Amino acid sequence: MSASATTHALVQSHLPELKLLARGKVRDVYEVDAQQLLFVATDRLSAFDVVMANGIPGKGKILTQLSLFWFDLLKPHGPNHLVTADMAQMPAVVQRYRDQLDGRCMLVKKLRIFQVEAIVRGYLSGSGLKEYQTSGTVCRIALPAGLVESSKLPAPLYTPSTKAALGTHDQNIHPAEAAKLLGQDFADQVEQRAITLYSAARDYAAGRGIIIADTKFEFGLDPDSGAVVLADEALTPDSSRFWPAASWLPGRPQNSFDKQFVRDYLESIHFDKNGPGITLPDDVVNRTQRKYIEAFRLLTGKEPAL
User: Fold this and answer.
1) In DSSP terms, which residues pair with 120 in a beta bridge?
2) Residue 223 and residue 211 in contact, taking contact as beta carbons nearer than 8 Å
3) How far apart (Å, rounded) are the C-alpha atoms in residues 187 and 199?
4) How far is CA 42 from CA 73, 101, 153, 163, 206, in A?
5) Cα-flanking dihedrals φ and ψ of residue 211, to 5°?
6) For the chain, what is the largest distance between any 2 Cα atoms, rounded to a whole number of angstroms?
């Protein structure tokens, strides 16, 4: 990839014939009709809940294709929101923007999204590690003494967080607080589904040489069936920590296939996490893109269509 490749990243979609509902950290969401939305995965990259000024070329396509792979693989574990990702099956108004959208969009069912991020941790890292080092807990859930950075947890741990608005930070909460937000029945369903999905994905990835240290799911309520449905993306480098199993060693940070590389770079330059995003250098962009591609290749056995 050339040094000028950052100019080829799609950092914002422009679909004037569709109603824009939201621009998130990565996705632009449009209303197609009363029952369906269009999710567009741009090449934006966020770290520490801050969107960087430039994107990672092809990243949105990799995220979309990897989510589609997981949606298919995890079908036995419950419904997801996907209607189609085949441009030929999209409404005509969507097909008009094929040049922007091909390979990076999904037509999905409109859900009532739960306002809780369903995070499952299998290993001790990130904000969970920081809390554990202070109090011996993660989301105020007590863990055994003597764990170190990157330790494998005794069992997958459900550690929900609030969903922050763009430009603000998610807040880890105890599962009991999630129950207050969602109601106990839905909270229990979200927790069970999240752990089941993580466990199935973890076991699959282990056979491909990848540790899924943690991941984040979103769920919503299907207004027609009343079912709890997997939404947004699934098990991508944006929503998960992927580590190569062959080099895993507790007690230190791990090599990573995800955007941890960007986080580490930002830490090294003392990035202001409460300020605006910065323009990432070309070498950081290039290496990050290669990590996303490598994760896709290892997990699916295929090359992404970029």
Assistant:
1) 158, 215
2) no
3) 18
4) 24, 9, 34, 20, 29
5) -90, 125
6) 58
Quick one: how far is CA 150 from the chain centroid? 20
Query: Which structure tokens are listed for 99?
Result: 């040049």
Q: How many whole angstroms separate alpha carbon 125 and alpha carbon 147?
A: 11
Q: Which two tokens stand for residue 209?
A: 């040489």
Q: At what angle do helices 282-300 and 260-268 cross, to 10 degrees?
A: 160
Cα–Cα distances in Å, from 287 out to 110, 225, 245? 35, 44, 20
DSSP string, 155-198: EEEE--EE-PPTTS---B--HHHHHHHH-HHHHHHHHHHHHHHH
Q: Which helix (H) or strand (E) holds 28?
A: strand 27-31
- Return the residue matching tokens 């199993």: 245
**pTM to 2 decimal places:** 0.91
Query: Parallel, antiparallel, or unpaired for β 210-221 and 116-123?
Result: antiparallel
What pLDDT does 49 receive?
84
pLDDT of residue 26: 92
Q: Which residues pair with 50 in a beta bridge?
A: 47
Distance of alpha carbon 158 from alpha carbon 191, whole angstroms: 6
What are 152's strand-pairing partners? Answer: 123
Determine the residue type at 166. Answer: L
Residues of the chain with pLDDT under 50: 1-7
CATH 3.40.50.2000 fits 114-254, yes or no: no
DSSP letters for 264-297: HHHHHTT--TTS---PPPHHHHHHHHHHHHHHHH
Please give the Cα distance from 41 to 58 (Å, whole number).
10
Q: Residue ranges per domain, the chain? A: 114-254
